[in-house]
Amino acid sequence: MARNPVTAVLPVDPVGPVRRVDSGVTYFRHLELWRIHSEFQAGERRRRERMAQVAGDDEFAQNLRDSAVRKR
After folding, report:
1. Which of 7, 31, 55, 65 is most buried (most C-beta within 10 Å)?
2. pLDDT tens digits, 37-67
3. Please, what sign has the CA dihedral across residues 9, 15, 20, 25?
4. Alpha carbon distances (Å) from 6 to 2, 10, 11
């Protein structure tokens, strides 16, 4: 006999909990969120490009200015 007796292991259901099928709803929700995020990013990119054209800067100068602003 062991020095420190332990409790018996409880039996485990071999099947376990059944996962509810969402029939693709999660996939389409993620797809819609990705589309919205993508449109937002495209709008931000177009805005930055317009600002760069107005200022007459090239992409490198714009990125340099943006990185300096982020460091503050």
Report:
1. 65
2. 999 999 999 998 888 777 666 778 778 888 8
3. positive
4. 9, 12, 15
